[in-house]
Amino acid sequence: MRLLLPALALLGAAASLSAARTGQISQDAIMSSAAPATLSEFGFFDGDASHPSAELIPYKLSTPLFSDYSEKQRFIYLPQTGVLKAEEGDGRLDFPVGSAIIKSFGYPSETGALKVIETRVLLRNATGWVALPYIWRADGKDADLRVGGARVPVHFKSASGTAKDINYGVPNKNQCKQCHSTNGEIMPIGPRLGNMAFASKADEMRLFAHLSAQNMPVMKWAKWDDPKSGSLSQRATSYLRINCGHCHNPAGSASNSGLFFDGKDYGPANAGINKRPVAAGRGSGNMDFVIDPGHPEQSILIYRLKSLDPGISMPELGRTTAHDEGVKLLEEWIASMKANKT
Amino acid sequence: MKIASLVTAALLAYAAPAVYAKTINVTPGANAQEKLQEALITAEPGDTVQLGEGKFVLTDGLSLDVNKVTVKGAGAKSTILDFTGQQGAGEGLLVTSDDVVLRDFAVENSKGDGIKSKGADRIVYHNLRVEWTGGPKETNGAYGVYPVDSTDVLIDSVIVRGASDAGIYVGQSRNIIVRNSVAMENVAGIEIENSYNADVHDNVATKNAGGVLVFDLPNLPQMGGHNVRIFENVIVDNMTPNFAPKGNIVANVPTGTGVMVMANRNVEVFDNVIGENGTTNVMIVGYRFPHSDKTYNPLPSNVAVWDNQHMRAGWDPKFPGGTEIAAAMGGSFPSIFWDGAGGAVSAPVIADNVMALSLGLSDLAADPGTAKPAPMARGVKPAKTLPAIKLPDNMEAAVK
Fold it and tell me: Where are the alpha helices (DSSP H) in A165-320?
């Protein structure tokens, strides 16, 4: 894999050269007030999902949102002269009008090649962001807008080799916003320099070329599954931030819970420590606290992350199977906390 | 005169959007999920999404995020959103936009909450039924109707049955009316929590574990619940054994509670019929759990209870020490009690013509075993001090 990187870098460089020539992405489609009916109208892909336009900048997240073990391909489109601003702290990116963020979701097919199910786009027009879901046709040649969302049966093998059959959920347009909501407005979640990674230096440089300030220090997130990147607590914090913090923050969809995982410090109760549930219903699982220090088996947080029941499971959207590896990290983290005196 | 002005108000309310408004008809049948969800997404302000008669078999939660939309069925009996096969989302229907009217349909068997509205100002819930059709079960969803974080909330002629938390729950909101509604066989019938300015009147709360609750909880964005009036309700026979999953605050509500006021200030309970509640008819308490929130006041204050008609209460008190106190008092627990914590500042005014008891607990941390029960002196009927809640005219017009 490491050997491939220089090759990818070369490809990236070549791609950016060709991008300058073609300019196939439709700024009109991105800025349009009417949602394009097909994904091809944007020009983000040269035909099928495995051929992203050379104008797109691919990126990854070092700690990603778990979405039923789907593989994701992420891209940023920036207008040629667009200027990106990075906020202080972890470098949350503020995108110029005309930008787009594109994310494809899929699973490996029998042949091992990725079969993309859907592509979600976030479009930055003059008034704000628009979120739209597109589902790929069976022939893979184009994807259709499906504002109402869909369920797609998927069969795949997990990393450990177990076969899984799930009813993968493509979000509807409102559900896009439910997660991408800040004070009722749609906002991107992922693109923060502190949590972004690139397959090649060339990709990184293409993005950085748009930054208004080149040398701003950025707080790097710990990578959830890499013990070298940070302490157990730091890695758990990264995991909670990306998997829960988009709703569980004072301006998000779960603001009324008073349970916040956006990486800021609101004190122990608002971080779930010895916090009693408010509107959890049977999500409480007969337990008293969101996090019972030292006792993952008595913590509502773990119970809800393991559950597949829609009335119990968290996150509420985008998960029909449990993320065993993520749960294990959080269990270890809670087990490492000093227990309450009894 | 009154009728004429109402008609005018109704005309005005409907006249403004009528120019552009359209009706989007959706009928049950194949693809109900996608068709209905698409209608809720493509609706524009002023539109009505008209739900046909019959059962919509749904596979996922629904959501509405467009302002000024009316979702209207053919009646709470005949238009049914059936979530029995729901695979995702935390509620049946979620509303996140303002000026929405929900009326004339039913929500059945959602996996989580029935209908939730968050940050949805001026929302009207009218002539709805939210039901878990298997009756009270711990596996039922938590709240039936669940407006939260909203200003101006009207719940009128709504029936909720089977919620494993509160049937009608209003949380962290301001300016609220709950009226003409029925809450039965829920853990809590009607609950007003961490909210300001609420009128709860002309409702029936029966066969719940607790009838009407007025709560305030710590560590939440909005705290300091106050100005709540509970009047002209029938709150009887709340004897369904508490079936809430442990951990939830309502799991601590003793089965057989009529009205329970916890950690709120300025609460008026009057002109209700309250009775056949085995623990007690009216309970006024502080929030007893340890908490670390310095901005939270766990004690009630300025609670007044008067002119209620009491029927039987207290023959089977379901809280620690209750049976012993009842035995000491000749077999029955009193119709009204206060935990005694907080001293004179927290003491309620009880002007009802029944026995009221202070448990005489020294503070909120005190073990109920240390209670020093003592009858409370009959208070003088206070003057009503809280103004009636008035909601915007177009909200009232929507239910006429």
Answer: 173-179, 201-208, 232-243, 300-306
